[in-house]
Fold this sequence. Notes:
A: 346 residues, alpha+beta, four-stranded mixed β-sheet, 10 strands, globular, B: 386 residues, Butyryl-Coa Dehydrogenase, subunit A, domain 1, Butyryl-CoA Dehydrogenase, subunit A, domain 3, 3 domains, 12 helices, 46% helix
Amino acid sequence: MDLGLTSDQEAIREIFASFFADRAGPDHARAAQPLGFDPEGWARLGETGAPGMGVPVDAGGGGASLADLVVVAEEAGANVSPLPLVDHTVTARLLAGLDAVGDDVVSGAAVAGLAVRPATGGLARSVPAGAVAEVLVALEDHRLVVVRGAAPGEAQPNHADMPIAHRSVQDGEVLAEGPEAVAAHARAVDEWRALTGSLLVGATRMAIKMAVDYVSERHQFGRPVGSFQAVQHGLADLPGLCDGARLLVAKTAWAGDRPGEGVADMGDNEVTDFAALAAMALVFAGEAALRATDRSLHYHGGYGFAEEYDIQLYYRRVRGWAQVLDDPARECRRLAGLLLNDREVD
Amino acid sequence: MDFALSDRAAVFRADVKAFLAEQVTDEVIGAMHESGTFNDRGLNGALADAGLLAGAVPGYGDRDPVELYILFNELEKAGAPYDGLAVTMLVAGVVHSVGTDFHRTEVLEKLITGRHNCCLGYSEPDHGSDVAAITTRAVRDGDGWVIDGRKMWTTMAHESDWVLLLTRTDPDVPKHQGLTMFLVHMDTPGIEVQPVATMATERTNATFFDAVRVGDQWRLGEVNGGWSVMGVALALERGVMGGTNPAVPLLRHVRAWAETAPSPDGGTMIDDPLLRERLARTAIANQVGQLLTLRAAWVAATGGLPGVEGSMAKIFASEAYQQVVGWFQQMAGAEGLLGFGADGAAGNGWIDYDARHAPVTTIYGGTTEINRNNIAERHLGLPRTR
Lengths: 346, 386
């Protein structure tokens, strides 16, 4: 057992913490609204190798593990970076697994995106990176299809200023069919859950920091607001939620990197199954992020509601990430099926 | 990060699981709730004889705190009577850390046989969270000390051989600087234990000290150095030694109930969408509680003192436990109110039991508010408010 990062992961964390802060931080996120995508930042990110980092080496990528990728995702989330790195990464890995990943996706020259929910009637609705994906993968009727071509470049106006768009997948090229297609899509969505969970952890971490910084500087009644116990106690539960979510995301990544099946025994609190952990990670990280951004915005007072302050960016982004796949309550019911093992899931 | 147990820890866990499966019978669990004493010397002794207890003393021997965590986590998940053992091993850890050779021989060596118990004498009727303000006096008398005062919440005092007793030895200095810790044998003349009944099944006590004479060799730590001994005790207590997975047995009981309980909407409760959602949310909280506890154990295992990490685990697990108990008791309707032995009680009375027990979990072992102060000051760096 080792609950620390490896030295390689520490190095990765430092590199991407500065990259996102310098090239794709809150100011870039604000400037990229309403599309939620900064092409310049994406081009710079491509130079770091990040878009293909999670693609296996034999497919031309960096061969990074999920455990490495969640470290990068946490830093992207901490900076609310307007870059579709999570969607791109899981789609690239999915394509690579089917021997269908092109150099343009590995390099990031083409943005890849995933319809995380199955498409119906030839339409994938509210695809998280749908407005910017030039390579879009979707599952419909047990067929996994890919659509290549120019992205619409325009998002549906949305709460989180994410590049959400509806996309036709009618003329898609079929990549796989039947159980293989369903399994490949399910695996990619589970990876999306883990990495999105990590985005949420990063945003949670930063929302707590922003709150602490603000209440330490802001004075009322002749004292720092952060010296009032009511405010301190409103903040004190948040680090445990943040750290708990990070550990759960890391455990999910660890399980996803291990070959073979895990267990999901809730009666003994022994859960090593990747799919069950991925659902847990997304739900819990979402809950932590909602709570932390809610508290942080509140302790900013009226300024928290103002466009000028960054906390509102975080508040809105995390709500987008936490529910663009589904209502967390429905995710929980799906998880219950995995834990109780008493019915077919999906 | 690597979430796999080391081979050695995995073997240890398998041994503990096998032991508990055999030893923690329905009779053992029934007896603890019947008596209100969550301590079973037969079980404790058997654990020691099986070689599973020496690793339960924090910092003692060659076991690491991950194994300590495993032992108490498995005891907790099994619903076993382990409260007395946890306190006893905590005291063993304090003795190991700050005691003399005399204390090790006379106390520690006996505690690890599983046949002796300790209790904690910190709180008093008028001093709980502000424990440094206690007034139980210890006054020098020749080679020894004379102790007078009252202690509250001395759970297991009626089972214990020793009490870890916090006393005031100098009332004229700032409160943290006038405290001294003692190990006092419970057979010493002048000690009286009175039971305190609680709203759940567990019994606790009030303990009275009237001109209790102890030799100086029973002092633990320096004269007026009691607060630093408390610091060791509190760091050992939070997080690692059970108390952060109480909803695991609850979840088993709820599932067993829901699989047969008819739903007023038709079918059984296990098909109720809200119940399923809440089972899943509870399973998530149980994982998070486990991971935060494991992290505290890992910090301790790698040489740190997991004060803040323990506070996080304690707050999260106890608050989550109270929330989920409330959900399930309400979802069981009238049957959720029925207790042990009642005809038709949801979960054979366990849901009622957990709903009765849950309120104390955000109080004992450091209240949620004290733990929040700890996190606000030591982790978030906010100013002290007291």
